[in-house]
Amino acid sequence: MYPGFFWRPEILGQFLGLVSIVGIILMVILLVWFRERSKRLRDKMIHEERLAAIEKGVPVPALPAEPPRPRNYVMRGMVWMAIGLGLLALAWSEADFPLGVGLIFVLIGLAILIAHLLTKRRRKEAYHSDTEHHSDLDSPS
């Protein structure tokens, strides 16, 4: 091997592709690891709090409810559409890349955005019915 072997375009392209794939896999693994670690630490703190309450003879507090994760359909739909549009641009720039691959991602993004619009109406209706219900409870009879 000569000093410039690694910098040849075909070797460099393969190396960058490999590094990209390994990097994405490592990011996913780290994301899952950090999420699980934070859940484990939270559970440990709750456990220690409950043990301390039992030792002191204080009533054990109820387990805190897991807060619901908001569904961000707009962001998710925009990401899918951006991926699809990028693939469509690639398909138009290169003749041998299938056009349908980009369209699949664009249509997934559109479906998620439509789901957001549909659930937005339901969320508004549920919010208004909840506020009406609470205002009935708060008013004196």
> Any idea how many domains?
2
Mean pLDDT: 76
Span between N and C termini? 90 Å
Spans of at least 5 consecutive residues with low confidence = 134-141
Taken as a percent bin, the fraction of beta residues is under 5%
Calculate Rg over CA atoms: 26 Å
Order of helices and strands: HHH
User: Shape from CA axes?
Assistant: flat
Main beta sheet: none
Total number of strands: 0
Any key phrases for this structure?
141 residues; mainly alpha; 2 domains; 3 helices; 77% helix; flat; disordered C terminus
Question: What report would you give on this structure?
Answer:
The protein folds into two domains: 1-67, no CATH class; 68-141. 77% of the residues lie in helices and 0% in strands. It has three helices and no strands. The protein has helices at residues 9-56, 73-93, 99-138. It is flat. The termini are far apart. Residues 134-141 have low confidence and may be disordered.
